Amino acid sequence: xxxxWSSLVPSVLVVLGAFLVPPAAAQAPDTSDAALQTALTTIDxxxxxxxxxxALGRLQALRAEHPGRVDVLWRLVYTWTDLGQATxxxxxxxxxxxxxxxxxxxxxxxxxxxARAHLAMAVAQGRAALxxxxxxxxxxxRAVKRHADRAIAIDSTLDGAYHxxxxxxxxxxxxxxxxxxxxxxxxxxxxxxSMDQAVQDFRRAIELDDRLFHHLELGKTYLQMDRSQxxxxxxxxxxxxxxxxxxxxxxKEEARALLDDLD
Length: 263
Prior knowledge:
- The protein is mainly alpha-helical and 263 residues long.
- The protein has helices at 34-48, 52-65, 70-86, 90-110, 115-128, 134-154, 159-174, 176-187, 195-208, 212-224, 228-240, 248-262.
- The chain is globular, with a radius of gyration of 18 Å.
- It starts with 33 loop residues before the first helix and ends with a helix.
- Mean pLDDT is 85; it is low at 1-15 and 22-31.
């Protein structure tokens, strides 16, 4: 039987970190410049309302004024990925994710000690892998894990970093022993993964910020572990929580579909 190498790494493995930055005042801008802080707070509110295009324009203007400001750059990364997630057009999505990766590189160049810059790079690497070949996907998957780990090492309070790492662990485990063995033989393998670690990471993300999509991914992890009762509890929590972020309605639809499959 001829193996399809591109099928060895599922696309969901590299679709990480959707809307990882809470809107508005939930994460205060790391700046002492009052005018810039006000502008960034407004941009966070725009993203929280789903007005990604306006947020993008304002961030690009701020970047021109403050080219080395990492608090501008990591927001710009997430806004490009927001736009990529929001579009149905493949070419536009790919372009948005490529832009996100370029800005993520600039963010780390500006401040390699920034946890948010490392998290933004983890997200951008995952998105950039969507349309890549298998070898590139493997390389970018390693980068996702490396930068998520680094973000947590620098700042252990970033819920998005735990969410990203949790998804990485779950999806690598989903490859199974046979496919992971092939990846190791052909492409040099991936770091060690663990379903228990995925659960721990999602639980930690929820402890830090009780957000709808953390519960969704924890529920999906329990499903993969054949823990249907625990999965049902998390998926029902998704349905019970209010939709407060732009992609929450989509996450609720996914949770409902998964619950229906359990019934």
